[in-house]
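Hey team,

Sharing the RNA helicase run so nobody has to redo it. Sequence (488 residues) first:
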Amino acid sequence: MATDSWAQAVDEQEAAAESIGNLQIKDKSGENGVLAGAGESSNKAPKPVAEGENKNAEEDDSDDKAAQSLLNKLIRNNLVNTTNQVEVLQKDPNSPLYSVKSFEELHLKPQLLQGVYAMGFNRPSKIQETALPMMLAEPPQNLIAQSQSGTGKTAAFVLAMLSHVDPNNTFPQCLCVSPTYELALQTGKVIEQMGKYYPEVKLVYAIRGNKLQRGMKLQEQIVIGTPGTMLDWCSKFKFIDPKKIKVFVLDEADVMIATQGHQDQSIRIQRMLPKNCQMLLFSATFEESVWNFAQRIVPEPNIIKLKREEETLDTIKQYYVLCNSKEEKFQALCNIYGAITIAQAMIFCHTRKTAGWLAGELSREGHQVALLSGEMQVEQRAAVIERFRDGKEKVLVTTNVCARGIDVEQVSVVINFDLPVDKDGNPDNETYLHRIGRTGRFGKRGLAINMVDSRMSMNILNRIQEHFNKKIERLDTDDLDEIEKIAS
Ligand SMILES: Nc1ncnc2c1ncn2[C@@H]1O[C@H](COP(=O)(O)OP(=O)(O)OP(=O)(O)O)[C@@H](O)[C@H]1O
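Structure output:
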């Protein structure tokens, strides 16, 4: 067997070289002052410039979180189903708890109900069932809500904002802060879609590249942006009168607090808002620091929590293939592709170099390949993910670092070209489960193929088997009949 060159701690090298620190698009021209209306195409949104000039390691980490969150949003094309029940803690435990099973029960404005149905939503998601009646109640209720990405939080608060604005008043009434421009833009797109039949409601992006004339007053009812610019627009430039704000949304609180300064800026915005302004905070995770921050932003909150759906290997067929080199691994991959029809696959490599090489070889074989690599800017990664999600490419080759935290539920075949190891070379069981596993009983059946090319990787595979107590069967990729069987 070949010696393990791949099992070096290349992850570290890649993480260090990550250019993801340049998360925000650096366009210093600043000339772009286009305002995007709710009914207009989002490509009219202004290009941002970096919010902080001197990025340090800590901020890189937060950018990484923001990038993960963005890529997850982009790769997903539907709701994450969950079997868990929501946990609710009401501000007033004696008041009745309403939950709805249909959007009709919410008595939405007809234009909004039309928008919701046009988005293909038939019924509220688990978190929306409880969160929506609370957010739409009169008088307005404050809310802290935590649930994993993809469970319908954004759609919920967008509906709340659109329901609360008065389109006859041409001044900002809802503020929504997001950790980065890209994330703000995603929320903006949801506002545009849901508000499609409500064109009187307008939206503007408070992000650094959007330069407005001094002294002007915004007419858009909804302002969405990053905390620094939002604060400037409320205080320094006075484009927004904070006293007229009815709804304040803080999205992705866990990502937000990872960036220095964002907490502070958000709190300063919150302090300028009237007492009766509805405060809403959303987060995918809820560690102590997020909770402390949430309590400072949201007084007298109702709290909704939805436990993350556990991932399982139960619905997954797992195999391993024995090889001697990366060339043999590639050949094995070609044999698999020759024998079974694979709609979409994600292939994980340990290093950027291997990923690049493999992507090249696969495309020479005629495959439509997408490559997600560490040196790409977040916007390039986003474009790759979107093309893959839309089926323009059938194979996505990526490295650990690049795809860390990305949910790949809809991909039916996952190939570990290199097994996941931590920086000490031990099996990374968590990453293995996250790459391969599926959630709950909704989880589709999946196929996972692990490439083993050394004694060390065999050892890692064995330890992964032991850890999950699930047998990984050997697959002989020279035997076409055998490969065909795995697809049945
Ligand atoms: N009630 C619903 N019915 C069907 N699909 C829905 C519903 N609510 C939201 N979705 C869709 O599910 C996906 C995830 O929703 P949403 O973005 O609101 O979740 P989220 O919890 O905010 O996750 P993230 O923070 O990653 O965006 C989106 O594609 C959205 O259009």
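Residues 73-306 form a domain with the Rossmann fold fold (CATH 3.40.50.300).

Ping me if you want the raw files.
A.
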